[in-house]
Design a protein that fits this description.
Elements lengths: L2 E6 L4 H10 L8 E7 L6 E6 L2 H7 L10 E7 L14 E2 L5 E9 L2 H10 L9 H16 L3 H11 L2 E9 L6 E6 L4 E5 L2 E5 L11 E4 L4 E6 L2 E5 L5 E2 L4 E2 L4 H5 L6 H7 L1 H10 L2 E2 L2 E2 L8 H6 L3 E5 L1 H18 L3 E5 H4 L11 E6 L5 H12 L3 E6 L5 H5 L2 E4 L12 H20 L5 H23 L1 H9 L6 E6 L2 H17 L2 E6 L16 E6 L5 H12 L4 E7 L11 E5 L7 H19 L18
Parallel strand pairs: 18-19, 18-20, 20-21, 21-22, 23-24, 23-25, 25-26, 26-27
Antiparallel strand pairs: 1-4, 1-10, 2-3, 2-4, 5-6, 6-7, 7-8, 8-12, 9-10, 9-11, 11-15, 12-13, 13-14, 16-17
Helix pairs in contact: 3-4, 4-5, 8-14, 8-15, 10-14, 10-17, 14-15, 15-19, 16-19, 17-19
The chain binds 2-deoxy-2-amino glucitol-6-phosphate (AGP).
2-deoxy-2-amino glucitol-6-phosphate binds next to α10.
Length: 612
């Protein structure tokens, strides 16, 4: 996810663009850039790697750039390392077209190959440069207007984009195009603004247009004209923004965590579609060849916290589907245990930040032993991403809340994709099973969205738990992996003591802690273990526990046992974690809210533990 801004009016553009970008840093902060021009002057482009402050210093707060029309960008790298060369704005070879982009061009390689055949050269690794040169190609080929050129490009591009472009022959004008990625356009006192999100322009105007998918907005001073894909003008109503500045940074959500919970369908879809092409999984971008996959003797998954819980779930899925032995290890243990690793093994390090000290040390330990390594990482160019032999990037975008949600869900989907592809390559599943599993993966984003839509019922139940002293999450198999994450979410943001337990293990001691009213959450998504876990829940109930059941629609007989039940849509048993974890994320969030705690920045915790 990146942030884009644009301005055209009578004021100097650069300071306004920088101010806007400063409100979008939560959307991306590994590099930034501006492109500014005056009516006849050449466009001037300045970029900088690192936080926005580096660009501010480089341009002396925008003072070194003169011009009343410009665009700006702050980047969250998806294609290509964070660097000045990959930073936006990107431009055509002769600077006829200059643009910034937020989104993912899924078919950028195919388009890049086409443009290379047409004589284009590329200076960056980004999908955005491809989009800019595609627009330039159509602009020169058809000698039409910028609207014509962008329309031709939109027809060819697959993916998501919020794009703002300037054309040399159209001074004072900015052309905006959108598909799926957020963008708003605003006007005030003879000036026009563009941004990924409300906070970037709220200081200047509350009068905004919401540009629709596959629409183009032409910004002139104080005026915006909209066009559809046929190039016909479309009328738009101005909307007045009611938000305050602080609320707007969370795009109307009260906290980053609830915002990121809502972003999970798109994050999961983006991550899945980064490796699923035409109904098949393609790991070439990850760097694992079929020969590599066939040669894996043992998998070691090493991580911390929630990322470790992904590993626990992935162990069941990979072993069951791909029939490869999997060990899951806490990074802080792995690094000091002197692990015995098989030389033909694969060590998978899962890390949102890519900077967790224990996970990075575990990676280095594995590499020192000469074992192939794969990082599943959310931050492009992070230490683990750079040092692992192979990388599977999750496309969750910046995750601000300390308690991970969307990054966790994208790590899961990455592991499922690996499991299904490994299973197919090693012929542990047939073509029909392969296709069925990939189709089912494709249904997860919508199913996650449906669960989030029912959040009020979970909020009602969660608010009643604010005074709880102990909460237990129990389950068997994959349901135990779900319990681990549910318990950690609850602990870290509500400060209520909680434990996750393999349901069959409770009676070996811990059940002594169950008292009248102790909340026990039974997770029951694995049909074959349903009755077993129910009996464990009954053991708790007979000692006074209050039972919440978490299961799939259809298992209505649970109502005979549980006092409160949450249902999630059915899916393949291997993928159940992706659905069952959502109510548990919401429950933890609403309990913390009910207790009036700092949901996004819980006490004692950091977003990335870069120390031992
Ligand atoms: C989970 O909500 C926490 N934020 C924490 O457990 C986190 O998952 C862990 O510190 C690992 O972080 P990483 O994914 O950045 O390596």
């Amino acid at each position: 996810m990146c942030g884009i801004v644009g301005f055209t009016g009578d004021q100097q553009a650069a300071p306004i663009l920088l101010e806007g970008l400063s409100k979008l840093e939560y959307r991306g902060y590994d590099s930034a850039g501006l492109a500014v021009r005056d009516n006849e002057a050449e466009v001037e482009i300045v970029k900088a790697k690192g936080r926005l402050s580096v660009l501010e210093e480089k341009t002396n707060g925008g003072q070194t750039l003169t011009g009343t029309c410009g665009i700006g960008h702050t980047r969250w790298a998806t294609h290509g390392e964070p660097s000045e060369g990959n930073a936006h704005p990107h431009h055509s070879d002769d600077c006829t077209v200059v643009a910034v982009h937020n989104g993912i061009i899924e078919n950028y390689q195919e388009l890049k190959d086409k443009l290379v055949r047409k004589g284009y050269q590329f200076y960056s690794e980004t999908d955005t440069e491809v989009a800019v040169k595609l627009i330039d190609y159509y602009y020169k080929k058809y000698l039409g207007t910028p609207v014509d050129a962008i329309n031709h490009a939109m027809v060819r591009i697959r993916g998501s984009y919020a794009l703002a472009a300037m054309f040399e022959e159209y001074p004072g004008e900015i052309y905006a195009a959108r598909k799926d990625s957020p963008m708003i356009l605003g006007i005030q006192d003879g000036e026009s603004y563009l941004a990924s999100d409300v906070p970037a322009i709220l200081k200047y105007t509350r009068n905004v247009y919401y540009i629709g998918n596959m629409e183009i907005g032409k910004l002139e001073k104080g005026k915006v004209t909209f066009y559809n894909l046929d190039g016909d003008e479309v009328e738009k109503e101005l909307t007045e923004i009611q938000w305050d500045a602080e609320a707007a940074e969370k795009t109307g959500f009260e906290h980053f965590m609830i915002k990121e919970i809502h972003e999970q369908p798109k994050a999961v879809s983006d991550t899945l579609h980064s490796v699923v092409k035409d109904g098949k999984i393609d790991l070439s971008g990850v760097g694992l060849s079929e020969e590599d996959i066939k040669g894996i003797s043992q998998i070691y998954i090493v991580a911390c916290g929630s990322a470790y819980h992904v590993g626990v779930a992935a162990q069941y899925v990979i072993e069951d589907l791909a029939k490869i032995p999997v060990r899951v290890e806490l990074a802080s243990e792995f690094r000091y245990r002197g692990p015995l690793l098989d030389k033909d093994g694969l060590v998978i390090i899962i890390s949102q930040s890519g900077e967790t000290a224990d996970s990075l040390a575990a990676l280095r330990e594995a590499k020192a032993k000469g074992v192939k390594t794969l990082g599943i990482v959310n931050v492009v160019g992070s230490s683990i991403a750079r040092e692992a032999d192979n990388v599977f990037y999750t496309l969750a975008g910046p995750e601000i809340a300390v308690a991970t949600t969307k990054a966790y869900s994208t790590q899961l989907i990455a592991c499922y994709a690996l499991a299904v592809q490994f299973a197919r390559i090693r012929e542990a599943i047939d073509g029909e099973g392969y296709t069925r599993l990939i189709e089912e993966l494709g249904t997860l984003p919508e199913k996650i969205g449906k669960i989030i839509e029912d959040k009020e019922r979970i909020q009602w139940f969660a608010a009643k738990q604010a005074a709880a002293k102990d909460i237990f999450f129990i389950g068997r198999g994959i349901d135990y992996a779900i319990s681990l994450e549910g318990s950690l979410k609850m602990k870290e943001i509500s400060y209520i003591h909680s434990e996750a337990y393999a349901a069959g293990e409770l009676k070996h001691g811990t059940i002594s802690l169950i008292e009248d009213g102790t909340l026990v959450v039974g997770v029951l998504t694995q049909q074959g273990l349903f009755e077993k876990t129910i009996s464990n829940m009954v053991e708790c109930k007979s000692r006074g526990a209050y039972l919440m059941g978490l299961t799939t629609y259809g298992n209505y007989n649970i109502e005979d046992t549980a006092d409160f039940v949450v249902y999630v849509p059915k899916t393949d048993v291997h993928f159940a974690v992706s659905l069952a974890v959502i109510p548990l994320q919401l429950m933890a969030y609403y309990v913390s809210l009910a207790k009036g705690l700092d949901v996004d920045k819980p006490r004692n915790l950091a977003k990335s533990v870069t120390v031992e």
